[in-house]
Design goal:
202 residues, mainly beta, four-stranded parallel β-sheet
């Protein structure tokens, strides 16, 4: 048997509170979509928004507007209980997701570009770039009980929690009419999201 899912879904979905038992003499290959575990949980798959560009300014305002902060990445779901008694089981996780366990999170958005300063004077500067957004939180693994069988599991971890998303890049500093030395400072990169816990592996 072969199960292949689309983006943000596990190949074989076992959400929190659910239990699946795999046994028999046959084989099962479960492949998660992007951010989905092979067996376990998926993800919200939310694409973080990028920060807006800072306000353009001119005469009378010395610094352009600060770029907007990038949005937070989408968090992932946690898995339930997976019991494997026999058979041949292959589980392949998607981006940031476990082979068996939690789903993967998406990255934070990029900070917005600092605002332009249109006034040509040595004391007028472009705006500061916005900070990058925080990465989403990875899904945790529930309980995996292995009683037998032949198991192949690959992903960000074979069995365990999904990875948190990367923090978004900081925005570029805004330009100034005077010259390039008056460009605004770039924004700080966002913080990476927390990874899910490894759960119980028995």
């Amino acid at each position: 048997n072969t199960l292949t899912s689309g983006a943000n879904r596990a190949g074989l979905s076992v959400p929190t509170g659910a239990t699946v038992t795999i046994e028999g003499t046959g084989s099962l290959t479960a492949t998660g979509g992007a951010y989905g575990a092979g067996i376990g949980a998926g993800s919200t798959g939310t694409v973080a928004t990028n920060g807006k560009q800072g306000t353009t300014v001119g005469s009378g305002t010395t610094i352009g507007g600060t770029g907007g902060v990038g949005g937070t990445g989408g968090s992932a779901y946690s898995s339930g209980t997976v019991i494997i008694k026999s058979g041949t089981v292959k589980a392949y996780g998607g981006t940031n997701a476990a082979g068996i366990g939690g789903g993967g999170a998406t990255n934070g958005g990029t900070g917005g570009t600092g605002g332009t300063n249109t006034w040509s004077s040595s004391s007028y500067y472009g705006g500061v770039g916005g900070s990058g957004g925080t990465g989403g939180t990875g899904g945790s693994n529930g309980t995996v009980i292995i009683m037998g069988g032949t198991i192949t599991a690959t992903g960000v971890t074979a069995i365990g929690g999904g990875r948190g998303g990367n923090g978004g890049a900081g925005g570029v500093g805004g330009t100034a009419a005077y010259n390039s030395t008056r460009r605004g400072v770039g924004g700080a990169g966002g913080k990476g999201g927390s990874s899910g816990s490894s759960g119980n592996i028995i």
